[in-house]
Amino acid sequence: MKKIMILIMLILSSGLVSAAMDPSVPFCERQGYEYKIENDTHLCYFDETHACEVWKFFRGECGEEYRKELPCVTEGDALFQQSGEECCEGLESNFGWWYNALGQPHCVKKMGFFQKVKVWLFGF
Prior knowledge:
It is a single chain. This protein folds into two domains: 1-68, no CATH class; 70-124, no CATH class. The protein contains five helices and five strands. By secondary structure, it is α+β, with helices and mostly antiparallel strands. β1 (34-38) and β2 form a beta hairpin. The strands form two sheets. It has a three-stranded antiparallel β-sheet. It has a two-stranded antiparallel sheet with strand order 4-5. It is elongated. It has helices spanning 2-13, 15-20, 24-30, 54-59, 113-122; strands at 34-38, 41-45, 51-53, 91-93, 107-109.
């Protein structure tokens, strides 16, 4: 049992967690653009000839004319608040009381305190 717990801790503390929480790629894709890796450079393509590195686009250092207002995040989808995303009406971020396996908050139906405790304790 100890070996399994150690393995789980190693997986969760590995680069998988930080990669899953990178908001720059979903920021590009949720605006309708294409994400590609070319020669170890992570790019957000706006059309066939215009692109920016995803982090530069995310930070507003390039491609400003291509930035769009992001739509609200629907139920069950990952929420990247760093990029200004918000949950749709009637939903809330589960950040702070329940995470998915990689620690990324999602938009869920609004719940009362006791419902949140039940989900946190029992997973349903």
